[in-house]
Amino acid sequence: MKQTKSYLAKTVEDLKPSGIRKFFDLAAGMEGVISLGVGEPDFVTSWSAREAAILSLEQGYTSYTANAGLLELRNEVSSYMKKQFHVDYNPKSEIIITVGASQALDIALRAILDPGDEVIVIEPSFVSYAPLVSLAGGKPVAVQATEEYDFKIQTHQLEKAVTDRTKAIMLCSPNNPTGTMLGENELIELATFIEKHDLLVLSDEIYAELAYDEPYVSFAAIEGMRHRTILINGFSKGFAMTGWRLGFVCANEELTAAMLKIHQYAMMCAPTMAQYAALEALKGGREDVEDMKKSYRRRRNYFVQSLNDIGLSCHIPGGAFYAFPSIVSTGLSSEQFAEQLLIEEKVAVVPGNVFGISGEGHIRCSYASSMEHLQEAVKRIKRFVEK
Ligand code: PMP
Prior knowledge:
387 residues; alpha/beta; Aspartate Aminotransferase, domain 1; Aspartate Aminotransferase, domain 2; three-stranded antiparallel β-sheet; binds 4'-deoxy-4'-aminopyridoxal-5'-phosphate
């Protein structure tokens, strides 16, 4: 019998592919391209972490771990979170080791959303949030953070977006794509709003290690917010471990038990050798993390200053490794700018519109690239803008 209908789920059919992909594909077919497009560290994972994974294989540790992850690793994560970010989670009942922060986001949303529940997504936003909300049966509600306020969302904007179906808000600080980091007072203001409307916060703290100007404050550390926070973090960015696919999620016992149900049926556990690598990354001291941070900070200062000198105005991003300059002065849309810059000068950046409405008029440049590449990119962007 002939196929007479689509077998695809409507929610999946309706999802648009990520706008970032198109530029990767275009750039991949060209030679001599300097890519400021990808959102990942340019460092290799520390040797001691890699060695720990090799050793785990040599010792034959190739079976599943506990669903929530190796207890030894959860213990380390718990101490790390306490020491670095002043939040206290029980390793036995409040931490799950996940397949990247990505899976943590997925199980967090699936654990809390009933069909039609709304989740506020602050744009410009990491491209996965809205699709993950939809896939979990929820409805993403976009609110626009703007350059005028350094891409920090204002409470009056959130007040307009909240309804009696709103269950949670996605928070990402330091932010992808803008690099904006919220300070303690701004988090306290947000906490007042969260309390008033009885909401949860999915706090994506994957860039917490990369905070350059002020100490990082976790949303869960704000008074009264621990039980309203699902804290998502991981090893990809701060520990340069993107390919290992390892993250974690911390929340109160009730939320953790709900997430663990999904995790154990859908994933069993995170990859065992990657868990051994992460264990060593945490135990091995902070030298590598601090060195990488210093290096990103140096590059941020150079790159953001250079963009402003060229005439592409750019606020100073407090964290992560992205600059998000305005390209409005060129008269081009962000897609036109990115496409023409790639074709004419072979520099790959991501057009801001892929991150949401308020991303238009901007481009995202990752400065996790060598200083030589950044210098050459600046030269090329300058030539392009002057044309
Ligand atoms: N959240 C944000 C804001 C990100 O930028 C990324 C990676 N680009 C992730 C989550 C996913 O990280 P992971 O590699 O841990 O899945």
